[in-house]
Design the sequence.
């Protein structure tokens, strides 16, 4: 397992991060996503740590809060050995103020997360989504409060547009507040949209990238029909994690399957290895419903794709040309 520094924090995290979205939750979408009990979750956490994983990701909304509780128990006395990320923003209750990024909700939510996780600090606390009602300066001030109070070590953001990330950090810099040091975003061979605006921003501002849904909700495992029909029990069968162009997926899977065959690997391992080879990527969040899935995903860390492999996967998954990208590529050097 390799380790990378997360943004400007100096914090070293494993290039594979275990996501706990499959932990807990007995009904609705959580049953489709995973619904793993304490024993199953603890086994996965222990196996991941043995494989060198030191980074774990959850959110106060996963499994209606159970994910944090189960993850905290699974880590137990090994707390100082690991880095924990959790999030705030999605509804965490039925009240009108039990959501969003207001000062009231952030202060309440971080205390609730600390209690569920069974810890007195959170290594990385992320805004899970935008709050269109709360001014960003209030949000950043509230985040700075909990950093200065010792409850949180570093801040991150998820599912924001590039301009929103930059605006938030500009506000933080102007006021001497803690800024977002990591971005958690959807990125995979079927969804390379963030390469247009977010990746250049991350590289320019030295912000770490945590990748969620690296296998496009299972679509990049090679187990789906060419028309997108999911196999029995697949996550996409009960919970849609975003739009997928299956024409592109089929091209990628075909290329990945040939590369996997030549390397005695699996299609998921090859597609994960492509992400690990991207310069902007700090860590890739893997999730599993079964131990066999976790073991397969962990195996991606041992795969080193060659230039020809990367070029082939790049070509199969290439984004359509858009303005101003084509203009910059053509004229920036003049």
Sequence:
């Amino acid at each position: 397992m390799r380790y990378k520094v997360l943004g400007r924090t100096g914090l070293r995290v494993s290039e594979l991060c275990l996501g706990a979205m499959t932990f807990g939750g007995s009904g609705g979408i959580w049953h489709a996503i995973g619904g793993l009990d304490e024993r199953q979750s603890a086994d996965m956490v222990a196996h991941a740590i043995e494989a060198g994983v030191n980074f774990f990701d959850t959110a106060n909304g996963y499994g209606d809060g159970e994910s944090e509780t189960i993850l905290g128990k699974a880590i137990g006395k090994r707390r100082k050995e690991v880095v924990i990320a959790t999030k705030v923003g999605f509804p965490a209750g039925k009240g009108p103020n039990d959501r969003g990024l207001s000062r009231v909700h952030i202060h309440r939510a971080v205390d609730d997360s600390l209690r569920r996780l069974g810890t007195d600090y959170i290594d990385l606390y992320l805004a899970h989504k935008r709050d269109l009602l709360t001014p960003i300066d209030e949000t950043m001030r509230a985040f700075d409060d909990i950093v200065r109070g010792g409850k949180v070590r570093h801040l991150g953001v998820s599912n924001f547009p590039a301009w929103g990330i930059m605006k938030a950090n500009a506000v933080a810099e102007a006021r001497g507040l803690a800024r977002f040091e990591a971005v958690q975003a959807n990125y995979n061979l079927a969804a390379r949209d963030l390469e247009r605006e977010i990746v250049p921003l991350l590289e320019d501002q030295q912000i770490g990238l945590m990748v969620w849904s690296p296998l496009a909700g299972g679509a990049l495992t090679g187990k789906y029909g060419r028309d997108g029909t999911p196999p029995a029990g697949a996550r996409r069968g009960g919970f849609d994690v975003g739009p997928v162009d299956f024409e592109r997926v089929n091209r990628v899977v075909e290329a990945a399957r040939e590369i996997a065959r030549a390397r005695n690997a699996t299609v998921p391992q090859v597609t994960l290895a492509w992400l690990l080879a991207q310069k902007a990527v700090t860590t890739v969040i893997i999730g599993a419903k079964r131990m066999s899935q976790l073991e397969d995903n962990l195996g991606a860390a041992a795969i080193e794709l060659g230039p020809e492999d990367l070029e082939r996967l790049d070509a199969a998954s290439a984004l359509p040309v858009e303005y101003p990208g084509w203009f910059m590529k053509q004229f920036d050097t003049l």
Observations:
- The chain is about 40% helix and 15% strand.
- The chain has one domain: 3-331.
